[in-house]
Amino acid sequence: MKNLFGKFNIVDFVIVLGVIIALIVGVATTKHFRQTADKQIEATSPITFQVFLRGVTVTGEEFPIKSQDKTFITIRNVPYTELNVVKVTSQARQTALATPKVKEQYILIKDPAQPAIFDAIITITDKAKITKDGAVVGGNKIKMGLPVTLEGESYKFNGTISDVRVTTESGVEDVGANNSVG
Fold it and tell me: How does DSSP classify residue 37?
């Protein structure tokens, strides 16, 4: 027995222990005692999400992203794929002016100090894997506040996801935690 331990050192015991632990984890996974990542996916469903672009400088005649176009999306600095643009809402920066006749009333006008600055909301569709934590696109959980980059032939804009909706058989279901503003 003494000769048996004399031929092995600590490294050998660590390797054998690692193999035994790996076998136990493998058996637990195949017997469904342990849940793997692919088991957590509940469904695959189409989603729409909105990307808010704040302070985009556009000096051309029209906003470069159009409805029904495709835009390449990068999520957390990792390139993903081209997705369909469903809707584009862009508006020039505005400023509030008080009206002289009515107290506490104001009107919004295009900001003359920033004529080429726009805010935009881009609505995009994709297929997502639905988990308990929300929608997963390109290996990333799509949630409000997630930074994304939209890129086309003539533009590259950084924005933030401002809304996520999952389409189900009964209609559209919200994936955000709490959309009430108040």
Answer: G
